[in-house]
Amino acid sequence: MTVSLSTTIGNFTFDNCFMNAAGVHCYSKEELLDIYQSNAGSFVTKTATLEPREGNPLPRYADTSLGSINSMGLPNLGLDYYLTFLEELEQSSTTKPTFLSLTGLSSQETHQLLNIVNQSSFQGLIELNLSCPNVPGKPQVAYDFETTNHLLAEVFTYFTKPLGIKLPPYFDIVHFDQAAAIFNQYPLVFVNCINSIGNGLVIEDESVLIRPKHGFGGLGGQYVKPTALANVHAFYQRLNPSIQIIGTGGVINGRDAFEHILCGASMVQIGTTLHKEGIPAFQRLSQELREIMVQKGYESIDDFRGELKYFA
Ligand code: RRO
C-alpha cells in the first residue's frame, strides 16, 4: 500500500505534512536551508520584526524531561534578512512553498511589515504571530479580542497575499466561540494552534531554569499536547472550511501527529522535538505516521483529517 503524507494549505501543495514550528531551527539562512533540504514539507522563519533584535539574556531556553520552557524574547535578524533570503530561494528553487513569520512590536509596525511583504516578490505564505508570550511589557495580542479584530480589519484593507495567524492556546469555550467569530470575518488562509503555553515556571533543585522574567516562560512539548489538540479541534469545529488549521504542540511521535490530524490539522509543526533531536526528527516522525496509516488502511491524510470520534 502506498501512503502519502502530502497536504495543501490554501492554493499551496506540500509533499510532506511536517515542518518546523517558528522559533526552532529557523534563525539563520543555514538553519532554514537545513529544513528546506530535509524531507520536511516546508519551513517557517523565526518571527521577524522590522529591526533585528538580540532578545532576552541567556540562558533563555531549557529542555526538560516533559518538554521545554523558553523566554527567547523575539531574537531575530530583521524582516529584510528573511525576506531577501526567501526571495533569493524562490529564484533558485521552487520545489517547496515556504512561510514567513512576522510580528510588529506595535500595530503600526505590523502594518509596516505587512506592507513591505505585500510589495515584495515573495510568493509564499505569511504567518502573523499574534501570540509571542515573552516580550516584557507587551501582552499577547490574541488574548485581546478587540485589538485582534481591529488589527485584522485594518490588515485586510490592503493585504493581498496568503495570510494566516499564530494563536496562543485558549482555555475557555466562550473564548473559542468569540475568537472564531472574529476570524470567520476575514479571508485568513490558516490559523496555527498553538504557540507555547505562556508563562509557566519550571524548577530544578531550588532554582528556575531560565534567566529572563525570574524563570517564567512558554511551555512546549509533552506538557502542551492536550491543550494543543483541544485548540486545533475547537477551531476546526468553528471556522469556515476555507480557513485551514496548522497543528502545533506536543508532537513527540507519529501517534501525536496522527491525533493532530484527526482533530483537523492539515499540517503539523514540530518545535520542542526538533530542538531536542534535530533534522532527523522529520524522517522519524514521517515514518511513524506512515506506519500508523498503513495499519489503519489510510492512504492519505485526507482520509482521516477531522474524523475524531465522539461518544454518542
Ligand atoms: O521569541 C520568543 O520568545 C517566542 C516567541 Br516570538 C513565540 O511566539 N513563542 C515563544 O514561545 N517564544
UniProtKB/TrEMBL annotation:
Transmembrane as UniProt keyword: no
EC number, as in UniProt: 1.3.-.-
Matches recorded under PROSITE patterns: DHODEHASE_1 (PS00911), DHODEHASE_2 (PS00912)
Enzyme class, spelled out: oxidoreductase
Reactions it catalyzes: (S)-dihydroorotate + fumarate = orotate + succinate; (S)-dihydroorotate + A = orotate + AH2
Family as reported in the entry's similarity comment: Belongs to the dihydroorotate dehydrogenase family. Type 1 subfamily.
Record-given protein name: Dihydroorotate dehydrogenase
Domain Dihydroorotate dehydrogenase catalytic, first and last residues per copy: 5-293
Keyword Zinc-finger: no
